[in-house]
Write a structure and sequence with these properties.
This protein is an alpha+beta fold. It is built from 15 helices and ten strands. The strands form three sheets. It has a five-stranded antiparallel sheet with strand order 7-3-10-9-8, with helices on both faces. It starts with 8 loop residues before the first helix and ends in a 9-residue tail after the last helix.
């Protein structure tokens, strides 16, 4: 596949007359509502634009020549292109307002989950999906910069230990390691206490860098547990992108859209939902595209990633902050999604998730 060439929609937008901007805005708006090509006659009747169908059609031809509109087949109406959506979102889209009932629902649901981060991630994706009628997605914060709160170790078999790494903010990582030596409960408790005395309060990055010197003075430890922790510190205190928790809710909302009625597109979409790693990369790419503040949305239109190449999906996402760690919350839907409403819901959710008692910060 040839690399795509980025075209700045603002440069093209500056070439448009006020009338052409109005026509572009209405074509995008109508296509979002109907999922069908928009014709000049229909546009004239619906909005009483005070101009002839021929004038509207000429403007549509100009917009198509600039790459902002397209027509799916001969003599059809027009539909927005990826560039057309980008121009609409950046230049023409009006801000949506969340209703008072929806704000109250978001406050109530999120407040009930605020003290349990794992529950918050699950419930926020469900609620966002329900309100947006799109796929709700939450990517847990990357905990490598998080502060270790406590290590717990549980023996799950004669040779297998489960390490439970608790990070401030309610984030937990578990990993299984092999240790052939049989440990008494008193020995295990004593060694866990030593590990927490030396490591609690440090970030996981700091632990990985300094684990070896922190235990140089520990000699004569016969169980091998401390040496195991030192030798495997990179595995224990490192979170790879693939291991980050991603919560998806509401796939049926996308699968019911007319864009995915074709069996090949539907199959590609289902495979994408089953591949959490690809979605993590999509969300991370969307957050890396712009350096956004907490609660500020980024829109990525017509995404193509890995095995998903049809470009029929868009992501609206925003960062949220928990205990100084950044996660992502957003929605995935067809390029024909209602971007203004998606932005309002995603930004509202990110704000609520970012701070205790955040109902005060979201109006």
């Amino acid at each position: 596949m040839a690399p795509s060439i980025y075209i700045d929609p603002s440069q093209i937008f500056r070439k448009l007359s006020l009338r052409q901007r109005s026509v572009l805005r209405l074509v995008v708006k109508c296509y979002i509502e109907t999922a069908g090509p928009v014709g000049s006659n229909w546009l004239k009747k619906k909005y009483n634009l005070g101009m002839s169908s021929a004038t509207i059609r000429n403007d549509m031809n100009e917009l198509e020549a600039l790459g902002l509109l397209d027509h799916p087949f001969t003599s059809s109406g027009r539909i927005p292109t990826k560039l057309g959506y980008q121009a609409f979102v950046s230049e023409l889209m009006e801000a949506a307002v969340i209703s008072a009932d929806e704000r109250e629902l978001m406050h109530r649901e999120m407040l009930a989950s605020m003290q349990d981060t794992q529950l918050l991630i699950r419930e926020s994706s469900k609620l966002l999906s329900r309100l947006a009628r799109l796929l709700g997605v939450v990517l847990s914060p990357e905990i490598n910069h998080g502060v270790l709160q406590r290590i717990e170790i549980v023996r799950v078999s004669s040779e297998t230990l489960m390490f439970v790494i608790s990070v401030q903010g309610g984030f937990i990582r578990t990993i299984l390691l092999q240790l052939a030596t049989e440990l008494k409960r008193s020995q295990l408790d004593e060694l866990v206490t030593l590990l927490n005395e030396r490591l609690a309060g440090l970030t996981l990055n700091e632990i990985r860098r300094t684990c070896v010197p922190r235990f140089l003075d520990v000699t004569g430890e016969e169980t091998g547990l401390i040496q195991l922790v030192v030798d495997r510190s990179f595995d224990l205190f490192n979170e790879s992108p693939e291991s980050r928790l991603i919560q998806l809710e509401g796939a049926s909302h996308i699968l019911s859209q007319p864009e995915f009625a074709d069996s090949a597109h539907m199959r590609e979409l289902i495979e994408l939902f089953d591949d959490g790693t690809s979605i993590v990369r999509m969300i991370e790419q969307s957050s890396a595209a712009e350096n956004k503040l907490s609660g500020q949305a980024n829109i990525q239109i017509g995404i193509e990633s890995g095995r998903y190449s049809s470009g029929k999906l868009s992501i609206v996402s925003a960062p949220f902050i928990r205990s100084n760690l950044q996660g992502m919350v957003g929605v995935i839907g067809p390029t024909r999604m209602n971007y203004a409403r998606a932005v309002a819901l995603v930004e509202g959710m990110a704000t609520l998730m970012s701070a205790p008692g955040s109902s005060k910060h979201f109006a």
